[in-house]
């Protein structure tokens, strides 16, 4: 039998101690790899108060509650949502910067602008769709018309004198306004704002006579109180919150359907397991009564999907609206 010497025992004890220290030092590093280990930033590419902001804050709450981490909402309004979307596209792909992408920046902008600072397919990763909102054409009570037929007649009699507000250039409501002009043969002046709230305030004040809204966030209360007139719903079907207001399609333009949809996105290269984790918690959260009710309050519907389904929606919608933009010869201003 070979008996260990005192030196052997000393070397063994040192080796055990070194191993223990290595394990201890590795512990925090391994823990740091667990997602999320710090706060998450959620970029909302429009001003506070609008549908994108409301849906985005609901998603931030869902993520924060499920992952037990702080989610900070940062509003980066401008360029019809393109500015904020570009911030997401250029962020580190580590799961700590996410964004709310809208139809405007993900599906309309690629067909509307010759150059974009980001490439939707290459620079962004779809996580899940969030929701869909129905919009409407609203008018100040002083407007000498109360339906679409009257609006068109007035616009034809006063070419270029009727202005309409939108939440920004290249947004779904801007496109709805331009699309209607091309179909009806009228000339309206577009007044872009940096969000829905500012546009509605100027409409209420009479600074603009008309507005195309991408959601019913604030429209319903003002229509019900008589402060605004609802001319038409811009989606393919009527809105639950305004059941007596006919769609544009019902008023002489069959097939007219401009929905406003939103989704959760991340920078390209974001780890697949992070995307999967976010998809899981957000889709589950969007199915809760609380989320469904919050979206219904603005005339919206939750619409959770897989990342693959959201990617397909972006591709299909980009093709659709690029064709509409070319056919109607819609140009950015």
UniProtKB/TrEMBL annotation:
Q: Does the keyword Signal apply?
A: yes
Q: Which residues form the signal peptide?
A: 1-31
Keyword annotations: Signal
For this protein, the record's SUPFAM superfamilies field holds: Periplasmic binding protein-like II
Kindly give the InterPro entries that the UniProt entry links to this protein: BUG, Bug_dom1, TAT_signal
Q: What Pfam families does this protein map onto? A: TctC
Keyword Cell division annotated: no
Give the highest taxon in the source lineage.
Bacteria
UniProt similarity note: Belongs to the UPF0065 (bug) family.
What this protein is called in its record is Tripartite tricarboxylate transporter substrate binding protein
UniProt lineage:
Bacteria, Pseudomonadati, Pseudomonadota, Betaproteobacteria, Burkholderiales
């Amino acid at each position: 039998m070979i008996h260990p010497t005192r030196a052997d025992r000393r070397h063994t004890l040192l080796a055990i101690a070194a191993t223990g220290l290595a394990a201890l030092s590795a512990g925090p590093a391994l823990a740091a790899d667990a997602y999320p280990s710090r706060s998450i930033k959620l970029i909302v590419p429009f001003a506070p108060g609008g549908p994108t902001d409301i849906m985005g804050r609901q998603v931030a709450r869902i993520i924060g509650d499920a992952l037990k981490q702080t989610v900070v909402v940062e509003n980066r309004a401008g360029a019809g949502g393109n500015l904020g979307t570009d911030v997401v596209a250029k962020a580190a792909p580590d799961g700590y910067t996410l964004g709310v992408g809208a139809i405007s920046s993900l599906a309309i902008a690629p067909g509307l602008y010759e150059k974009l600072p980001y490439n939707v397919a290459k620079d962004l990763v779809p996580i899940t769709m969030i929701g869909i909102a129905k919009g409407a054409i609203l008018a100040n009570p002083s407007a000498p018309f109360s339906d679409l037929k009257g609006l068109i007649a007035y616009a034809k009699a006063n070419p270029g004198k009727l202005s309409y507000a939108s939440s920004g250039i290249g947004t779904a409501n801007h496109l709805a306004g331009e699309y209607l002009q091309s179909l009806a043969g009228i000339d309206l002046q577009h007044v872009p704002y940096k969000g829905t709230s500012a546009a509605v305030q100027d409409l209420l004040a009479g600074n603009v006579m008309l507005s195309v809204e991408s959601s019913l966030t604030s429209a319903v209360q003002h229509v019900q109180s008589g402060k605004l007139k609802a001319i038409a719903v811009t989606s393919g079907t009527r809105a639950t919150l305004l059941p007596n207001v006919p769609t544009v399609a019902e008023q002489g333009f069959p097939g007219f359907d401009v929905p406003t949809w939103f989704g959760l996105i991340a920078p390209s290269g974001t780890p697949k397991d992070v995307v999967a984790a976010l998809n899981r918690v957000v889709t589950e959260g969007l199915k809760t009564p609380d989320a469904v009710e919050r979206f219904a309050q603005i005339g919206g519907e939750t619409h959770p999907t897989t990342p693959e389904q959201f990617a397909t929606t972006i591709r299909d919608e980009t093709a659709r609206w690029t064709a509409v933009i070319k056919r109607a010869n819609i140009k950015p201003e």
